[in-house]
Amino acid sequence: MDDLFRVLPGDEGATRVLDRESYDLLTLANEGHDAPVTDLRPGYLVAADLDWTTEEPTVTDLSVERSTLYTFIDDISPVFEVARDLWEDAVAAGEGMNSCVTRDTDNVVNGAVYVFADSGPTSRFDEFRTGSRPLEPLVDRINDRDDEGPTPREVFVLRPAETDDFVVVTIALEKGGLFADTIRDTYDVAEPDEPLD
Q: What are the start-end ranges of the H helices in 60-173?
């Protein structure tokens, strides 16, 4: 299996994937495959063989390469301090984005936070969710800097409730680590069931 895909949130009855090489988006029906497509979770990086001879492409073989999780949370409140400060600095500088690494109480890097302006004809939050604006470059940047190489991460895309000016993307280096769990606890979002993990 040579084709790598990033799993994205899909519509009811379908799974959306992003081709990691071409950035093309593909919607797969949840049924009619030789692999457990419905057990995939947003964020998973999968290797898959697709059969294009059928009316709709079907998955004939599938393996999870990295069980990274993508979580999209709308109407967050409050916006955590690091993200709020980053956005205020971006506005003051006349910039449309800003970023920084985050550290734990022992001053060890545990993630990264990005803020993006969310003005325009389409929502940046929705663009990230649908894959029309891929999160891949941000994840790749983290993986390229990590001495231990690519490992499962947790990526949170957050849209503040009190303003539509910006969107926050937070990447926790350790899946299931303290930083990721803190975000989940703060915004009351449970970890998904992962049958394939």
A: 81-93, 124-130, 136-145
CATH of domain 3-66: 2.40.50.140
Confidence check: pLDDT of 1 > 60: no
Name residue 53's amino acid: T
The angle at the Cα of 113, spanning 129 to 190, to the nearest 5 degrees, equals: 55
Q: Domain ranges in the chain?
A: 3-66, 70-186
Query: Collapsing DSSP states into helix, strand and coil, what is residue 196?
Result: coil
Kindly state the helix (H) or strand (E) to which residue 18 belongs, with its residue range.
strand 14-19
Q: Are 100 and 80 in contact (CB under 8 A)?
A: no
Helices (H) then strands (E): counts for the chain:
4, 10
pLDDT one-digit tens code per residue, 38-82? 999 999 999 999 998 888 889 999 999 999 999 999 999 999 999
Q: Mark 2-31 as b/e (b = at least 16 C-beta within 10 Å).
A: eebbbbbebeeeebbbbbbeeeebbebbee
Question: For residues 104 and 99, what is the distance between their CA atoms, to the nearest angstrom?
Answer: 17
- State whether residue 102 is helix, strand or coil: strand
Q: Give per-residue pLDDT as tens, 91-112.
A: 999 999 999 999 999 999 999 9
